[in-house]
Amino acid sequence: MKKQALVFSLLCFIITNTKAQQSLLGFKSSDAEIINEKIFDAQLSAKRVGENIKKLSSVPHHVGSVGGKMVASEIAKVFKEAGWDTKIETYQLMFPTPITRTLEMSGVTNYKAKLKETPLKEDATSNQADQLPTYNCWSADGDVTSNLVFVNYGLPEDYETLAKYGIDVKGKIVIAKYGRSWRGIKPKVAQEHGAIGCLIYSDPADDGYGAGDAYPVGAFKNDQTVQRGSIMDMVIYPGDPTTPNIASIEGAPRVDHNDAKNLLKIPVLPISYGDATPLLKDMAGPVAPREWGGGLPFTYHIGPSTSQVHLKLAFDWKLRPGLDVIATIKGSEFPDQWVIRGNHHDGWVNGAADPISGMAAELEEAIAIGGLLKQGWKPKRTLVYCAWDAEEPGLMGSTEWVENHAAELQTKAVAYINSDGNGRGFLGAEGSHAFAPLITEISKTVIDPQTGVSVFERSKAARAASATSTAAKKEAFQSTAYPLGAMGSGSDYSSFIQHLGVPSLNIGYGGEDEGGEYHSIYDSYDMYRRFKDPTFAYGVTLAQTTGRVVMRLANADALQFDFTELHKTVKGYITELMNNVDQLREKAKVENELVNNSVYVYAADKTENLKLPVLLPEVPYIDFTSVLNALAHLEKAAAGAEAAKKTADAKKLAEINSKIYTAEQQLLTNAGLPRRPWFKHSLYAPGFYTGYGVKTVPGVREAIEQKNWAETNEQMGEVAKAIDRLSVYLEAL
Q1: 598: pLDDT confidence band, cut at 50, 70 and 90?
Q2: Residue 47: pLDDT above 50?
Q3: For a tag on the chain, would you pick the N or C end, based on fewer CB atoms within 10 A?
Q4: Phi and psi at residue 33, in whole multiples of 5°?
Q5: 659: helix, coil or strand?
Q6: CATH classification of 98-317 is 3.50.30.30, yes or no?
């Protein structure tokens, strides 16, 4: 303790006697904040990050497991020892696990799938008991037999290609490659086309030996590795499927899982490329298009297969306890303004990378903040640190907590800051665009441990290196702002921003930590320390980044919301949508001229089954005037809000702060998005057919993509109203 106190004293002396060169957003005087951040940084330990990753990934810890209870208890212990007021909130969550898994082929080819990953001597935890078997959570029970059809990545456009070949999947079982979209999209589209079952395999070209050495020699999938995962249709709603819109507390009313609108009706199973090989080799029918090919050493055919495939799955459909760890430090001045930080703690198996690497960083923040408390520091606003359970099956722990505390959160939540898995590489950040200047500022103060430059500069260099044109490279090199991304889904921020309108951020590092361990028994401490972040330095880097966001929001004189940045971003989205409509109109015009003139050119590999092209429907005039007028209104209102903050005295600034963090709720629509009303944000949502991937201005964008012009105009009006509501709200600050 004496040594730690001496370090703190020296830091304070050095920094206090060095004139601050930086003026931080939201602070009238930045000196104290900079000193506190230096003290915060000094307490972060890469060694401890590694120790916590090892401890918390030492056993399988899926929701409801003995290991899951142990992990939640260990996390709560760390929070308590650091001085946080800590509790565990328990929710009763539907979480089905397999009773029966059978996959076999009979006929010309006879094969029974192994459906099991191989323990390895190089991976100490790969042979443990209590591992969840390889399965897709939320698959339907089913016992089906049919021929197999290869559908590439199983996306809507792949079925358009199948139609050109005259191949129908109705009544068939399909096999799709992992990749190019979230896994749940593949069975969703298959079911829509009449398939009775779906297999998903990882092709070695994507994340096996085609990408790099296979585990344990390298980081990529060996021939028995399987990606477990949820196939809940989260774009309808996340959380417990049996309690839509309400919390899964004891005694909550439930719908039968067979009636849940976000669950599919066909059996679905993930398999390794080892198990997929004999199934794919049995395929007859046309040779697959060249771009459909993979890394297996034979020619890929579309099918149907010559042999019959039998798929039988059954699940237990039980309720299990989900344990959310909630740790709090009460704000000294504004206790009813909450800065919330979260990462999930449950894994499909041992989960060292996903999610424990991010959880270990969050624990470092909590420990360092606890150290500041012991030095007399107090946050002005309340800090709420969360460790979510049951994220993997469908964001259940966070969603049920949000639904349970919705009214309070919409009154008190200043922001939610999320992380998930973390590794070596580049800063990745997405979120509410009013936070864009804050993320730019912070990214310029955090130093990349590998290169010694700021994470902002390293990210900029990476964007320039991957740019495909000279102009794009020049733009990347000249950029002075971090390009904050938009939020789709796939992690615990979804219910905060897209259901309640709580301003949110999602932050992590990666890009040099590629591998094939995702959701397998090989997502282990041994894998992580060899291939993901060997020195655990990026755990510290993540803690520095998210810790700065938390501390600056907690102690700012003026909360760092800049809606002028949101205006610029949304204006870019609308310009993009206008261009999309113009391109669709031009495409229809050109292709229809070709058809009318009978000069349609076929590919060199023309087959007799290819259908003749038909005339495309004309694209009508789409009037964007209402949204453009709303944007002009927002531009003035946002500029006025920024000016008001700069001239306000302390009393007025406190009043502005008390209102500005709820401004984003004005962008919610009462009706929600078409066909999925749980999603209420008019600017950000996961796409109906992208899963994790974001669709910005989703109501309008998806209506345009579906060429539903009546809905396009309807949603245009909803977006314009939402932007105008925000403008009026900002004008009243």
Answers
A1: low
A2: yes
A3: N
A4: -65, -40
A5: helix
A6: yes
